[in-house]
Amino acid sequence: MLFENLGLRPELLKAITTRGYKTATPIQAQSIPKILAGHDILAGAQTGTGKTAAFALPLLQILSNKQNQGHRPRALILTPTRELAAQVLEFIKDYGQDLTLRSTAIFGGVNIRPQKTKLRNGIDILVATPGRLMDHVSQKTLDLSRIELLVLDEADRMLDMG
User: What is this structure's pTM?
Assistant: First the structure.
């Protein structure tokens, strides 16, 4: 299925086309319309099949349809590792470059102060590892009360890790 038939906004289609993609993978073709329609999904696919795009593209579209009414995040993407968090954030920034959404990643192993500053300045999309997310919640530097969209990326790995 062509990306242009999935109901994505022009800014996202431009970002997809710029990167040389025209046809959605099966996981993308099945997931994107359901997420855009407001359905919850549980999906799994092999590495390299475009799972990140399957959740990130509709997430970007949904959030860009209305302005954030404050500084609290509206989407939370949980990942098991900081490497994956950084990778997902890069994808979000690349594909959402023509949108007015703010995003950041928080994870352990780095200074927490710059993360606090970004959170205080306001974001729409938060990519986080569970440990650092809990650090921010316990320090009251993060309010999750406005979360509209939740993604558990590699949930099986997070459960394996405890």
Answer: 0.93
Residue type, 148: E
Find, among 9, 32, 1, the residue nearest to 101 by Cα: 9
Neighbour count for residue 67 (Cβ, 10 Å): 10
Under DSSP, is residue 61 helix (H, G, I), strand (E, B) or coil? helix
Burial class (CB in 10 A: 0-12, 13-18, 19+), 162: exposed
> What is the number of residues in the chain?
162
Residues 104-145: tens digit of each pLDDT = 999 999 999 999 999 999 999 999 999 999 999 999 999 999
> Which amino acid would we find at residue 72?
R
Task: Give me the DSSP letters along 77-127.
Answer: EE-SSHHHHHHHHHHHHHHTTTS---EEEE-SSS-SHHHHHHHHH--SEEE
**Three-class DSSP category at 72:** coil
pLDDT digits (tens, 9 = 90+) for 141-160: 999 999 999 999 986 776 77
Radius of gyration of the chain (CA): 15
